[in-house]
Amino acid sequence: VRTNGGELVMVYESAGSVWWQRSTDEGATWYSIFKVADNAKQPSLALWGNDVVIAYQKNNSGSYQIASKVYSAYYTGMSNEKIITSTINSYFDDAQVVAGINPDGKVIFVWRQTTASGNAGLFYSGGIISYSSDTLHNGLERLVIRVVQVQHHQ
Fold first, then answer.
1. Which of the four, 31, 44, 56, 71, has the lowest number of CB atoms within 10 Å?
2. What Rg do the C-alpha atoms of the chain give, in angstroms?
3. Model-level pTM greater than 0.90?
4. Is 80 exceeded by the pLDDT of residue 76?
5. Measuring CA to CA, which residue among 90, 93, 122 is closest to residue 109?
6. What region, left, alpha or beta, does residue 134 occupy, with left being phi > 0 and alpha being psi -120 to 50 degrees?
7. Residue 54 near residue 71 (C-beta atoms within 8 A)
8. What is the pLDDT of residue 131?
9. pLDDT of residue 61
10. Given its phi and psi angles, is residue 132 left (phi above 0), alpha (psi -120 to 50 degrees) or beta?
């Protein structure tokens, strides 16, 4: 993703961890390799004003949590980790977490989760990460959206 200041920022999964890098020369060189999280996978990015939100699935004793950090291009630094969900499901399930910004400028997270009864759905968390305190406010809302398979008949 390209920040408003022109930096290119990327995250990726390697060796069981989530990593972050940036480039200031259109991607010709990448530097500032930073480990975002150990025991984590499936990172995603969302541009949030001058900052970049990083969301990922984190291993917690065999189950997983959805977590995030914020990279500030202005301060060229990374925030502390914020846990978005309580511990859910097996870490080997792929949550495919995505961070996004809604029209009100609030950070939202969407992930795939299988319920105890075996139904899969998309879960949503509408927490707000504050610029000043860098904390996740309460009021997480989860909305289960049923995933419907469409079969084409010939």
1. 31
2. 16
3. no
4. no
5. 122
6. left
7. yes
8. 33
9. 86
10. alpha
